[in-house]
Amino acid sequence: MLRKLKLSLLGLTVSVLAFAQSAPQGISVRTNLLWDGAAEPNLGLEFPIGKRLSLGLDAGLKSWPRWLFWDTDNINNPRHWRNFAIVPEVRFYPGRVYQGLFLGADLVYTYFNVGKVSFPLGLYPETRDKRLQGDFVGLGLFGGYSWWLGDHWRLELEAGVAAGYAGYGSYRCEHCGDKLADESKPALVPKLGVNVAWNPVKRPRECDVPIPLREVPEEMPMPDPVEDPGPFRPQLAPVEPHRGAVDSVKTPFLLHIGDFQPYTPDQVLRKKRGMIKVYYPQGSSALRTSFEESGRLRDNQPALDSIVNITRMILSDDISKVEKIQIVGFSSIDGGEPANERLALARARALQEYVQKRTQAPLQAFVVENGQEGWAEFKDMLEDLLRETRRGVATGFTTGELETAVGIAGAPTLDAAHNRRKELELKKHSALWGKIKEKVLGDQRNSGYVRVYVSWVPDKAADEINGAIGRINAGQVEEGRRALSAMDDARARDVLKELDARRGAYEEAVSLYRAYEGALARRREAAAARQEALDWNAMAGAHNAAVLECENGKKD
């Protein structure tokens, strides 16, 4: 039975807390000074559910054995008193909630652990020489009076009694000992309270006079935002200098002579910008326009035509000039180092002869370099295949095979004996070597990579135009404009047209921004007036509702 009463009390407590969340404006927080004086910290909540009714919940906890929280159980001080209580309640105020006389009913649950304590008026005599530990659940009636001490503070006096059922165990010793018996019986618990309460909402005043509402202006639409154009900064793009035939050629292997770099064995030309490749049959330096290898057609004609035609165009131009034609020859790593070195150089010279014969380029323009077996190129191809294999791309290799091959290839070197040992080490892995020959070495049998480096006559007019553009972009607009106007060049005239167009667009943007700023200022003024009226009406509405409630309360 006691267990059912405790569960019912728990459900009621949860309901009270749920109601409390729905009425935060009228909540009151209190503490019972008598409980505090008995070394039992406590806290109470109360909130109205009508003009004269309120719900409340009080809870207290005394977790230390006697008066002070640092007290501990010991033989020298035999008193022992621990307690926990939770009390949901309902109050009725005949006049108004929180004010004057009130009557109430509550449900009381307390857990106690008491020994060697004498209560006044002869209450609970069993605790004088025994320790009792258990629960009490009961229903109580009480009454009291509430005074407002100020706008937020109140003082309450209350008294009552709760009748219920106690279930507990009795022990011989206040700190220890065997249990003497389990008992359950009816019990009475008195209720006395001197409460100090705090209300977040001010106490009700005498009924005031209603406040008239204001007319709310219509809300003005927000103008479309316009970005502040800031100072006039046209930021014109520089003009490209005239470079003769170079301007009409769109190919990556045509570079300025200032970018020229001699070949070194550690370079990986296959990934450098602008290199063009020509292939050779295995073991041959004979240059063919096309041939078939392992079922794959190698078509050199487009590359050869591109090299010859572009070189001819530059050679016939008065402004641009062919400075260097760089050719790097390679062989694969398969075979003896001396033979491969000769083969790589022969391939580069075969391509040189082909280009020179068809373009009549001067011999001194050619830079023929021997890339030999190209171990750097070989290792780079293996690393690319390894990355693709790790991403799940089908390359024909396993990850382990490629990791082995990359490890053997190592860093590039010109030491022929060392390179020979690496080749023999690869050939020990026969299956891996077969795949390398089929899928990798074919791309190494080429004349290598060809680049054409050129120069051109400086375009002084472009330098002057770009100088004027630089002054305009730096903010010296009129100074740059005067310089452009003095030039007899179509590009300068085009820049002036662009400058005028951007100035017109800027002036239009400034006009739009000023109109936007004016509309925005008017919108802000209207919004401020509207918000002021809304705030006034909200305040007046709350005030008038309080007045009406006050009047209704007075009538009741």
As residue ranges, the low-confidence spans are 4-9, 19-25
What is the CATH fold-level name of the largest domain?
60s Ribosomal Protein L30, Chain: A
Main pleated-sheet profile: 8 strands, antiparallel, barrel
What percentage of amino acids are in beta strands? 25-35%
Describe this structure in words.
Helix 5 (375-390) runs antiparallel to helix 6 (399-409) and helix 9 runs antiparallel to helix 10 (477-485). The protein folds into 3 domains: 2-198, Porin (Beta Barrel); 209-235 and 460-556, no CATH class; 244-456, 2-Layer Sandwich (60s Ribosomal Protein L30, Chain: A), CATH 3.30.1330. By secondary structure, it is of the alpha+beta class. Helix 4 (337-359) links the parallel strand 13 and strand 14. The chain has 11 helices and 15 strands. It has helices spanning 2-21, 33-37, 301-315, 337-359, 375-390, 399-409, 416-428, 430-439, 460-473, 477-485, 490-555; strands at residues 28-32, 42-48, 53-62, 80-92, 100-115, 131-148, 153-171, 179-198, 254-256, 276-279, 290-293, 296-299, 320-329, 366-370, 446-456.
Secondary structure topology:
Elements: H1 2-21, E1 28-32, H2 33-37, E2 42-48, E3 53-62, E4 80-92, E5 100-115, E6 131-148, E7 153-171, E8 179-198, E9 254-256, E10 276-279, E11 290-293, E12 296-299, H3 301-315, E13 320-329, H4 337-359, E14 366-370, H5 375-390, H6 399-409, H7 416-428, H8 430-439, E15 446-456, H9 460-473, H10 477-485, H11 490-555
Parallel strand pairs: 9-15, 13-14
Antiparallel strand pairs: 1-2, 1-8, 2-3, 3-4, 4-5, 5-6, 6-7, 7-8, 10-15, 11-12, 13-15
